[in-house]
Design a protein that fits this description.
By secondary structure, the chain is an alpha/beta fold. It has a single domain (4-189), classed as Rossmann fold, CATH 3.40.50.720. Helices cover 35% and strands 15% of the residues. It has helices at 13-24, 57-71, 90-109, 148-161, 184-189; strands spanning 4-8, 28-33, 47-51, 76-79, 116-120, 168-171. It has a six-stranded parallel sheet with strand order 3-2-1-4-5-6, with helices on both faces. Helix 3 links the parallel strand 4 and strand 5. The radius of gyration is 17 Å and the shape is globular. Residues 5-183 form the NAD-dependent epimerase/dehydratase domain. Keywords: Oxidoreductase. One of its GO terms (cellular component) is cytoplasm. One of its GO terms (molecular function) is aldehyde dehydrogenase (NAD+) activity.
């Protein structure tokens, strides 16, 4: 039987490509999306959907509990859901930190801890350290994020790090662009 993987933010730019790669690698793929998400890039017949309100702890916990009762847990979780741009500055904290906390807490609460939880964070969690000297950033460097986006991603990382016996990996990509991207090209063009 194929190992199962939940990819949150699956309808987004990065998440939709991870879904495709997981299908290519023969995982049993669950695309974690909001009920209102645009699924235009999620057309493969091999995709199953995990729809929930990630901003509502009770709704998310209920959805995960129903999934567990019907299908069991997930072997892996890749948490791509997040916001890079927000009209209301408080939304960075709500989406990038609080929704991450809700997901992790619900997985723990329901005894659905995966073999590995991958949190797609951002290089912005480090902030502009070593920028002037063009020195490489090292894992032991002290992060100094200077944007609300970076601060919210670092806060989520710190929360996950504080958990005992929770298997996690942080992935901190730099600016990402390519097909399906809606924001980066416009930002660099301006």
């Amino acid at each position: 039987m194929a190992e199962s993987i939940l990819i949150t933010g699956a309808s987004g730019f990065i998440g939709s490509f991870i879904v495709e790669e997981a299908l290519n690698r023969m995982f049993s793929v669950w695309a974690g999306v909001r009920i209102t998400s645009d699924k235009r890039y999620l057309k493969s017949t091999g995709i199953r959907f995990f729809e929930s309100n990630f901003a509502d702890w009770d709704a998310l916990r209920t959805s995960l509990s129903q999934h567990k009762n019907s299908y069991g847990g997930f072997d892996y979780v890749i948490h791509c859901a997040g916001a890079t741009q927000c009209v209301d500055k408080d939304d960075f904290e709500k989406v990038n930190y609080l929704q991450t906390k809700y997901l992790v807490d619900a997985l723990i609460d329901l005894d659905m801890i995966p073999k590995q939880f991958v949190f797609v964070s951002s290089l912005s969690a480090f902030g502009p350290i070593h920028e002037k000297g063009y020195q490489p950033i090292k894992e032991g460097d002290t992060p100094v994020p200077n944007t609300l986006y970076g601060i919210s991603k670092l806060k989520a990382e710190r929360y996950i790090e504080s958990l005992v016996d929770f298997p996690y990996v942080f992935y901190r990509p730099t600016g990402v662009y390519g097909p399906r991207d809606k924001d980066y090209f416009l930002m660099t063009k301006s």
